[in-house]
Amino acid sequence: MRLSSFAFISILLLVLSSQVVQAQFWDMPTGRCWANFEQYRQCASTCPDTCNDIRWPNPYKICNLMCRMGCECIQPFVRLNENPMSPCVHPRRCRFM
Question: Which of 28, 53, 66, 67 qualifies as a cystine partner to 43, CB 3.0-4.6 A?
Fold first, then answer.
């Protein structure tokens, strides 16, 4: 029994889309960023700037020099909070959050 081309393509798209959703759910790098103002990097910071860093500057913030594969905010945007899945916002919005 052969599958029609339409059925084969439909199954293939379903499998690929479920893999992307699983990768996003488990925070696995997919090679692409889905949120606004983000870019995928092979070596993204493990200690990105956040709104807290702008509101209460801490010159003694300690970050390791290691990196990770994943999404990073495009300059001048920063993460809303410490959660790596939080949205990237412009620093001017940090005052109101």
Answer: 67
